[in-house]
Amino acid sequence: MEEIGMDPSAANPGPLDPSVLYDQEKHVSSAVWDGQERGALRCHEHTSKLSEWRLTPKQIELVETAGFGYLREIPAISLDNPLISALVERWRRETNTFHFTVGEMTVTLQDVAFLLGLAIDGMPVIGITYTTCGTVCERYLGRAPDSTYASGGMVKLSWLKEFFSQCPKDASIEEIERHTRAYLLYLVGSTIFSTTTGNKVPVMYLPLFEKFENAGRYAWGAAALAFLYRALGNASVRSQSTICGCLTLLQCWSYFHLNIGRPKLNRDPIHDHFPFVLRWKGKQIGPTTNRDVVFYRKALDSLEPCDVEWLPYKYMDGLVIPEEIRNSLVLGRSKTMLICFDKAERHLPNRVLRQFSMLQPIPEGVPQWVRKSRGVDGGVDLSGKMESELNEWANRALHIVEGDDDADENEYMGWYFRITRKIVGRPVSLSSEFQRTIGGVREILYLAETFPLKGLLPEQFASISRIMSIAQECLRDQVGGTVVVSPIVGNELGKRTRGKERVRRKGTGKRKRSNDPMEGHGGSEDESQYCGIVVEVDQLHSYHTNNEVNHLRLCDTAIEGETALLLDTPNKIDDIQFHDGNDGIDASQFCDASNEADNSNILNAIGESDLQTAKTMEEVIPQSFELPDATDGTNNSEIHNETNKPDYSKACNATNGINDLQTPVGTHVNETQTCDATDRVSRSQPSDFAVHSDQQMCCSIKRGHIVMYFLEAAKDELASAFYSMQG
């Protein structure tokens, strides 16, 4: 239900059509919408000590021959982790593009050529994998690292720097070549192929540096982009907290294309230098200390066309661009497969034609493909395992995308807004949304209390009484009741409370890891921190039956202070356990409907919210509960209440006499038996929970959305009674 006067994207940020962004539920933007902040990503790029290498003129010559002369000149640029994290929230691995409010954009092969000066044409970067370092290092470097410097097929960057950062002046040509190979391995391992390990680089690149002339024939720029695409895709998964790859490329691409977070230079460059990353070399002016992920997220959510530079290199001095780079720029529009050993990623310039000064039509669909993990065994030549990808790269010159002068960009934007995630952050704060929901409940209670009762049928009178009772139950904290439903607003959205983010879950053991976070990844810690009882509500429509109990399944997540009853669902639907957060409980109580009007009460049930803002990873609705103690025989609903344990949170569910409030729920349950939470606690080991305040607020909002559905049903009930009275 969309709220009146609110931007539709505030209720449903998209995608309305999931045919393109089919992995939305795994994406970090879903977690952010649910109030789960992961903070800024840890950015792994290790360029700070590159300047400590002392290269001889002969080494520099060999580095240039191998194709890394321009990459060597790029200085260490301070990374803006919050900016990079906000960009990742907009990255979609289904299309390998950023989904901004102005349309899709991406880092293209042309950007790599301009910004890094790496070759985007040539042989694919692929070869043999290794699971040990000794043999390959001995062959190409003349020595092997001991066990403290190597693990698997990776060697520590510190080992390379310690033994090869300074070549002896009287070194032989063989010794010079070995020191140069070590430098090249360190260079790619700290820049374009940096890994999340933080300090290691795979030795599988070393054989490609055996002959420096041959190394210069590889498409290192295409490999760097494939590696970055894969890193962005992995980091966009809600369970991830790190990112690797060439983040200098990503950040400087943003500086050139987006007027967000762009630092002001101390002075405008007198003339351009190549590669164009050097524009951002040196001291910069601009406050960045108070800019967090939320700041950049809001900026990207409100991005305007005037904030975008579609053609940032148009006025750059073309004379500084090397001829070999200039001659290969046409491949920047090649729709092809990018390859870096086992990483194969699609390059789709047809989705970002405005970056090539062309009109953007509706692009063709992207076939779903599984990113496989290959080469786990040593000595595997990946060329035989990636034939289709290699063939696509070999035919790259045949797939240069062209523009369409008749393209209708208005039609494109209409299509785009249906398939994209329009915003990442909530435009209305959780506390404001909660207060608006409370206001709606107050309004319906006022309407029910002032409704004229003269001429009503008995069942209509009973319905209005039930509406009043339910509304009063929802507002008990507002009218002086004992239960306080409090959205804790001490920490604003976007701030994390250190030390209170982990939930100990019984019987789950260690979380399984996967090579590809999108393929069978386990739930993250943040994902497990949903608190409160979530309800499945598809529709609430009014209808009448005689003397028959229907179950209005509402979620009443009462939270007081920092304690609440929490739902722990390890992996089983039929074995639900409620754990009492007993760390500092002040006898917070769930719904005790002892003062009901017309014997009307709220049935607290368990379910899964169908709303966009209340989705969880685990389904928690069993078809029936069978419990030992029944309070009455109404429609086989059995409630087990335990009220004699003052040290525990209590849940009392009264279900007497709900006769005519006919509000069927999405998944209809005819024989639902609900169990009191404290009885479950007595039969299980209690767990300690530290609940993040923003997530507590989010639970209240989930409850609020369900209450809003109830409001609509109640209005229908009142209207029906009014029309019957008029008739």
Task: Note the topology.
Blueprint: H1 8-11, H2 28-33, E1 42-43, H3 57-65, H4 69-73, H5 81-88, E2 91-92, E3 97-100, E4 103-105, H6 109-116, H7 134-141, E5 150-151, E6 154-156, H8 157-164, H9 173-190, E7 200-202, H10 212-215, H11 220-235, E8 242-243, H12 247-257, E9 264-265, E10 284-285, H13 293-301, H14 323-327, E11 336-340, E12 343-347, H15 387-394, H16 409-419, H17 430-449, H18 458-474, E13 553-554, E14 565-568, E15 577-580, E16 603-604, E17 639-640, E18 674-675, H19 677-682, H20 693-726
Parallel strand pairs: 1-8, 13-16, 17-18
Antiparallel strand pairs: 2-3, 3-4, 5-6, 6-7, 9-10, 11-12, 14-15
Explain what you see.
It holds the Pfam family PMD. Residues 496-513 have a biased composition (Basic residues). The chain has helices at residues 8-11, 28-33, 57-65, 69-73, 81-88, 109-116, 134-141, 157-164, 173-190, 212-215, 220-235, 247-257, 293-301, 323-327, 387-394, 409-419, 430-449, 458-474, 677-682, 693-726, and strands at 42-43, 91-92, 97-100, 103-105, 150-151, 154-156, 200-202, 242-243, 264-265, 284-285, 336-340, 343-347, 553-554, 565-568, 577-580, 603-604, 639-640, 674-675. The longest helix has 34 residues, at 693-726. Helices cover 30% and strands 7% of the residues. Strand 2 (91-92) and strand 3 form a beta hairpin. It is built from 20 helices and 18 strands. The chain is mainly alpha-helical and 727 residues long. It has a 3-stranded antiparallel β-sheet. Helix 3 crosses helix 9, helix 5 (81-88) crosses helix 13 (293-301) and helix 6 (109-116) crosses helix 11.
